[in-house]
UniProtKB/TrEMBL annotation:
Alphabetical list of Gene3D superfamilies matching this protein: Nucleoside phosphorylase domain (3.40.50.1580)
InterPro entries: Nucleoside_phosphorylase_d (IPR000845), Nucleoside_phosphorylase_sf (IPR035994)
GO biological process, one term: nucleoside metabolic process
Protein name per the record: Nucleoside phosphorylase domain-containing protein
Pfam families in alphabetical order: PNP_UDP_1 (PF01048)
Upper taxonomic lineage: Bacteria, Pseudomonadati, Myxococcota, Myxococcia, Myxococcales
Nucleoside phosphorylase domain span: 31-128
Naturally occurring in which organism (per UniProt): Anaeromyxobacter diazotrophicus
Molecular function GO terms recorded: catalytic activity
Length: 197
């Protein structure tokens, strides 16, 4: 791999890149992969094929399932788990051969505490749903399994830095709307402070 090939910085949509899509840090190429795991997987695979980066960093916001995380906390996605509330509560199951877990391929600084991240097909809206999914992970995110799966298939190490914008439950959307831009700015600044970006 040539030394001048940039690493790939990804987010779901532009506000989570805080302007880095227009002016990426030196040594990085930035792009958005869209909302949802399937969309993110397809876009990530296309970007990997086009640019062959050495590694990938995904940045974004997430929701906290329980008291392990609070709004404003920063974390590293230790693993992405594709799941659903129906599956966790026993109303659905997957074929045994279907992969559902993808581990991060490189580590972020200690400031970003590692946590498992659940990736359901849609946003969880109830406190009971959050409590059920908390048995698998500390945080909820909609794209990470797609990004990590595409990177694993391509043999490219991936990491994720996420900022908690809301608690998962009935008030999550309003809380996310009020906080996501500030949390994204804090996340990008922390990555700069730690010399990741």
């Amino acid at each position: 791999m040539p030394a001048n090939v940039p690493d790939l910085l990804l987010a779901a949509f532009p506000p989570e890149l805080c302007g880095l899509d227009a002016a990426p840090p030196p040594g990085w190429r930035a792009a958005c992969v869209g909302v949802g795991a399937v969309t993110a997987a397809a876009a990530t695979a296309r970007l990997l094929a086009a640019s062959a980066p050495r590694r990938v960093l995904f940045v974004g916001t997430c929701g906290a399932y329980d008291g392990r995380l609070a709004p404003g906390d920063l974390l590293a996605g230790a693993e992405a788990i594709a799941t659903s509330l129906d599956e966790v509560e026993g109303r659905a199951y997957r074929p045994a051969a279907e992969p559902v877990r993808w581990a991060a391929g490189w580590a972020l600084p200690a400031r970003f505490a590692p946590h498992a991240v659940a990736v359901p097909p849609a946003i969880t809206r109830t406190a009971a749903g959050a409590a059920a999914l908390a048995r698998l992970a500390a945080a909820e995110h909609l794209e990470l399994s797609g990004v990590f799966a595409a990177c694993a298939a391509a043999g490219v190490p991936a990491a994720a830095a996420l900022g908690v914008a809301n608690r998962v439950g009935p008030e999550a959307h309003a809380e996310w709307c009020a906080r996501h831009e500030g949390v994204s700015r804090a996340l990008v600044q922390a990555l700069r402070d730690e010399r990741v970006l």
